[in-house]
Design a protein that fits this description.
The protein has about 210 residues and is of the alpha/beta class. Helix content is about 25%, strand content about 15%. Helix 3 (about 100-105) links the parallel strand 2 (about 75) and strand 3.
Length: about 210
């Protein structure tokens, strides 16, 4: 599990770019060899080589961008009306069901959560045993105003400007800690650092008593 207070890039393009550049000379030589054989050419110019290199790079970067664009972002807000978290793929179609959005997301997906207070099981229950749970390969970001189109547009979050998004265990009677959630977040065994929680205030858990 990784919990971060600030923005973090999830891309690893340097490694991808390295593999692209390493493979280009071999690919170009193969293509030029076929091209020269077809047209009876015995030599080819550096200009043609550079053009093929550029075209191959553009093609490979396009494939990379298509792969990245396959990532799904699901949106959660306190005003969301969507009861199907799987289809909460914009702020306009957001859901209040944070755990539901986590559950239907896949590896490399993201969940964006707008400012507000979210409680395990929803804001109207009193079951102390319910908790939020993270998921391997999933990045969960809080602190949004609810209008952002990119992660970089999210308001600044730091120790003097805390996130506006709170995960709270204040279930049951409000402001009565004796009936608060045992655990606000309880992660499954085997959770790794590929699970990311970024930009949240976690409050009001209470593990006193027998549970």
């Amino acid at each position: 599990m990784t919990v971060q207070p600030d923005n973090r890039s999830l891309n690893s393009f340097p490694l991808v770019s390295l593999s692209v550049w390493v493979s280009l000379p071999f690919a170009n030589n193969l293509i030029l060899s076929r091209f020269s054989s077809f047209y009876g050419m015995t030599h080819y110019s550096p200009f043609l080589y550079r053009q093929l290199t550029r075209n191959l790079l553009v093609f490979l970067l396009l494939l990379i961008s298509l792969t990245v664009s396959g990532q799904t972002i699901r949106y959660v807000s306190t005003t969301g009306t969507n009861t199907n978290p799987a289809s909460a793929t914009s702020w306009a179609t957001s859901t209040t069901n944070l755990q539901g959005a986590i559950a239907v997301s896949s590896v490399n997906d993201q969940v964006w959560v707008a400012g507000g207070t979210y409680k395990p099981g929803g804001n109207g229950h009193s079951n102390r045993s319910l908790s939020f749970a993270m998921k391997n390969g999933l990045a969960i970001y809080g602190g949004f105003a609810g209008t952002e189109a990119t992660l970089g547009q999210r308001p600044t979050i730091n120790p003097t400007t805390p996130s506006a998004t709170t995960l709270s265990g204040d279930v049951g009677i409000l402001d009565n800690p004796t009936d608060n959630s045992f655990h606000v977040i309880s992660n499954p065994a085997g959770l790794t650092t590929t699970a990311l929680l970024n930009g949240f205030v976690i409050a009001n858990g209470n593990t006193s008593g027998v549970y």
